Amino acid sequence: MTGAIAEILSDCKPSVYLYGSTTLDDFKYGWSDIDILVLTQKVISDEQANELVFLRQKMAEEYQNNQYFRSFEGGMLSVSGFMDRTPDRVVYWGTSGQRITDFYVFDSFSMAELLENGILLFGDDVRGDFKYPAYESFHLDVEKHYNAIRRYAQITDRSLYSFGWLLDIARCIYTLRTGKIIAKTKAGEWSLENAICPVPTELKKALSVRKNPTEYLKDTVTFDYAETLGPAIQKFADVLEKELNK
């Protein structure tokens, strides 16, 4: 994938980074994404953007025995557009699809992951001028996560990803207490070890699913359980609310 991207953007001097769960030793096929960031020295052209936007599908078709190409997610844009948060030509790959857009902005968690654990796969390392997020930025982004939990996780779906809300809360609490980032699996384990989670049974199940998601893909009992997680998630969110208000 890196080779294909670099070839398409050869005249733009791309820098390709890997970050997220893969660099935090927390990638789980069937759950995790392969997060990449591509920063170029000049704006990506229309022709290049149109070639990049469906590259995941093209690679998956070309290498049909490789199951990972569709797991790639991220953004591709100029380094100036990324740093200045200004309009740019952006190729975006997400869980629900891909598109050519105008903006691509990291939250504090992604920026910390990029600076602490990001791996340069190709090109020059341009992170020298990037700033590590201030604690206030973490607090603001945790508050956004909290609001999303209150809004969207009152009722959960019959999906393995419903368990992810519990791990997200654990990670947010860890960051509020330490000012640092941590992998979601380790955050869940940390929460259990320190008796922070008021619904340990549900969190233990979330960790089990997170560690071996492919084992549960046909487990109807687990999917039924996922649909009942709303109250437990909200109870854990009460703990997060107290942490935010400290």
Characterise this structure:
The chain has helices at 2-8, 46-52, 55-62, 79-84, 108-117, 135-152, 164-178, 184-193, 200-211, 220-226, 230-244; strands at 15-19, 34-40, 72-78, 90-93, 98-101, 119-122. It has 246 residues and is α+β, with helices and mostly antiparallel strands. It folds into 2 domains: 2-129, no CATH class; 135-244. Strands 5-4-3-2-1-6 form a 6-stranded mixed β-sheet, sandwiched between helices. Helix 7 crosses helix 8 (184-193). It is globular and about 55 Å long. The mean pLDDT is 97.
Helix/strand layout:
Blueprint: H1 2-8, E1 15-19, E2 34-40, H2 46-52, H3 55-62, E3 72-78, H4 79-84, E4 90-93, E5 98-101, H5 108-117, E6 119-122, H6 135-152, H7 164-178, H8 184-193, H9 200-211, H10 220-226, H11 230-244
Parallel strand pairs: 2-3
Antiparallel strand pairs: 1-2, 1-6, 3-4, 4-5
Helix pairs in contact: 6-7, 6-11, 7-8, 7-11, 8-9
Briefly summarize what is shown.
The chain has helices at residues 2-8, 46-52, 55-62, 79-84, 108-117, 135-152, 164-178, 184-193, 200-211, 220-226, 230-244; strands at residues 15-19, 34-40, 72-78, 90-93, 98-101, 119-122.
Which descriptors apply to this entry?
alpha+beta, 246 residues, 11 helices, globular, 6 strands
